[in-house]
Amino acid sequence: MWISHEENAAAPGKRLRFKTTTDASEKQVIDAMQKIASHIKNPSKFSKASKLAIQLIQAGSIKETTSDYFFALLEAGMSSLTSCNDPSLRADYHSLFSAAQDIDECLNKKQQNLLTVWTIRAVWANDLFTDDSFVFSKATGRIKEAISALPVATKDDDMDEAAALKDETEAVNADAQENASTESRAEEEEPDPFGLDALISNAPKKEDKSKGKKANNRKEDDEERRRFLKSQRVALILCLETAAKRYKTPWCQTSIDILAKHAFDNVARFTSGQRGAIGKLWASIREQQTRRKQGKSVSGKLDVNGFEYLQQKYSTEKISIRRAVGGSGDRKSQQWLG
Q1: E strands of 155-216, at which residues?
Q2: CB 121 within 8 A of CB 85
Q3: Among 18, 100, 130, 313, which is 20 to 30 Å from 180 by CA?
Q4: How many whole angstroms separate alpha carbon 233 and alpha carbon 235?
Q5: Distance between CA atoms of residues 336 and 69, nearest Å
Q6: Cα separation of 187 and 76, whole Å?
């Protein structure tokens, strides 16, 4: 039976009961992003929250005016850097950060850098858990390209790493001593005993202010570059460790051999502790290769102790757009991270 337009409009249906994302106002979209962000950091709610976030991307809701709110959502999802590689969450993280590539142009430079690092962890590293040889090979190829793109590590990078791997209690004790010393000096010295500070103008000239602003911008850019490189190296080390743990799977071995050799050939692009871990990995691979050539049995287990040690140290850090380290970090950590 033919139904008129009027009758059809009156007929009950999903279109009349539900409001699509594309029909929502900007305020409603922002409210939705904030609500998702409040839930996505909870592992038990991540699956559902990430699917809603993907729907926002697919609906075209991420624009310059809403991108900061959506980035905060992604940041909440990565509040724990280890969750994205949890077996029960890997597929959902992979889907979310694969979809997030479509909003890259809406983000500022710092946000793009963080999205790049999170993509290495949530997409590339998770591709290494695949049972598909093509996907695995493609992932190792991406990792090789990223390693080649790293600059050679400097002495400053090594010093930053050394500072990062110090015992946390030393930093806490040092901070406590410094605070006590500051309080002591404050008690001894009266800041302005004659009340003259308000009468004396120490404001720099306009030209000096301009020069200072440019210098600060250059310093901030340099700090952001160093922070980005450090985070990239850490994420790529995670990928190398993840790949190495797949060595027991025969069809993975050739790709891992090539990847580890490439990392070893480019070891100068990593920091001191990372160079040591890569060296041990390559040595154990060569040992496995020698045993195979001699017809001896191989365990398929590589030396990843160096990687595991580094990951244990790195796992306490929370990368943030507002500061380099999350709540577990201290002020010194913020300094070496930029």
Answers
A1: none
A2: yes
A3: 313
A4: 5
A5: 28
A6: 41
Decide: residue 193, CB within 10 A, 0-12 exposed, 13-18 middle, 19+ buried: exposed
Enter the tokens of residue 88: 């029960």
**Calpha distance 306→275 (Å, rounded):** 9
pLDDT digits (tens, 9 = 90+) for 260-296: 999 999 999 999 999 999 999 998 888 888 887 787 7
Q: How far is CA 33 from CA 15, 68, 117, 230, in A?
A: 23, 10, 22, 29
- Which among 44, 89, 97 has a CA at the least distance from the CA of 73? 97
DSSP string covering 53-70, please? HHHHHHTT---TTTHHHH
Cα dihedral 117→122→126→127 (10° resolution): -70
Q: Which long-range contacts link 298-301 to residues 24+ away (Cβ below 8 Å)?
A: 299/248, 300/247, 300/248, 300/249, 300/253, 301/247, 301/248
Number of helices (H), then strands (E), belonging to the chain: the values are 16, 0
Tell me, what amino acid is at 234?
V
pTM: 0.72
Its sign, for the CA torsion 215, 221, 224, 225, is: negative
> Are the CB atoms for 282 and 263 separated by under 8 Å?
yes
* pLDDT tens column, 109-125: 999 999 999 999 999 99
Q: Is 248 helix (H, G, I), strand (E, B) or coil?
A: coil
For the beta carbon of residue 103, count every other beta carbon within 10 angstroms: 22
| Unique residue bearing structure tokens 């901030």 | 220
